[in-house]
Amino acid sequence: MPFTNDFSHAPGNPASYDLKSQLPPQRATTIVCTPARSPLVGGERGAAHFTFTETIMQVQPYVFFNGRCEEALTYYGKHLGAEVTFMMRFKDAPPDPQNPPRAGLEDKIMHANVKLGASQWMASDGHCDPDAPPMSGFSLSLTVEDPASAQQYFNALADGGQVLMPWGATFWSKGFGMTVDRFGLTWMVTLPPQV
After folding, report:
1. What pLDDT does 6 receive?
2. Structural domain for 101, as ranges
3. Rounded to whole angstroms, how far apart are CA atoms 72 and 91?
4. Is 143 part of any domain?
5. Residue 48 and residue 14 in contact, taking contact as beta carbons nearer than 8 Å
6. pLDDT tens digits, residue range 151-191?
7. Could you tell me the pTM of the whole model?
8. Based on the domain organization, do 137 and 177 belong to the same domain?
9. Which of 18, 39, 175, 193 counts the highest number of beta carbons within 10 A?
10. What was the pLDDT predicted at 24?
11. Strand, helix or coil at 53?
């Protein structure tokens, strides 16, 4: 994160400038800096001490399977080694009279956390809308260092789905393929360039 020691634009005493209000609280970080023009801090010239928070971000896919979440997660567990680390069904959620679940959704998955390799992602049955459009505009990219495993995962994902790009060598990788799986989720399976 860039940090400047130019306090010429800071309102009032630079030593009391509230950097905490500039960032959402996540983790406290103390910065010690010596401004270009040393302000008087505690009656003496010297370094100014600032404590502010640093935002830690992580992007995780949240996939809605429109009623087929449990089937999908079972399939990914069997063929990719995915592990469901948390799952809540609609019937397990606290009752909300303002937003009750639609009849028939009680046993559907409201939320699940999934671990696949070193990645975490989330899944749900969503609203189970029969008129929902197919998933589009994104894909999950699965990078596998072992060529035999990568092709095996690709074949498992392609089984019952639609292959968009058959498994094979490309100019950027010795193994790459794209497929829409049987649940409508698009996957890109690839070997890293160094393999």
Report:
1. 40
2. 59-132
3. 20
4. yes
5. yes
6. 999 999 999 999 999 999 999 999 999 999 999 999 999 99
7. 0.71
8. yes
9. 175
10. 46
11. strand
Closest CA to 172 of 193, 188, 187, 150: 193
CA dist 68 and 113 (Å) reads 15
Q: What is the DSSP letter of 147?
A: H
Using alpha carbons, select from 57, 50, 55 the residue that is nearest to residue 23.
55
Locate 120 and state its tokens.
């975490």
Q: Are residues 149 and 178 in the same domain?
A: yes
**Predicted local distance difference test score (pLDDT) of residue 27:** 54
The answer to whether position 74 is within a domain reads yes
Tell me, yes or no, whether 154 lies in a domain.
Answer: yes
Mean pLDDT split into 10-residue runs, the chain, 195 residues: 40 42 48 49 54 78 96 98 97 88 91 96 93 93 96 98 97 97 98 86
> Do residue 168 and residue 188 come from a single domain?
yes
Q: Indicate whether 46 and 70 sit together in one domain.
A: no
Contact between 42 and 48 (Cβ < 8 Å)? no
Fill in the amino acid letter for 191.
Answer: L
**Residue 32 falls inside a structural domain:** yes
The dihedral region occupied by 144, where left means phi > 0, alpha psi between -120 and 50, and beta the remainder, is: beta
Tell me, rounded to whole angstroms, the distance of Cα 34 from its chain centroid: 37
How many domains, the chain? 3
Provide the sign of the torsion angle of the four alpha carbons 69, 71, 72, 73, taken in this order: positive
99-104 long-range CB contacts below 8 Å, 24 or more apart? 102/127, 102/128, 104/128
- Please give the Cα distance from 178 to 191 (Å, whole number): 12
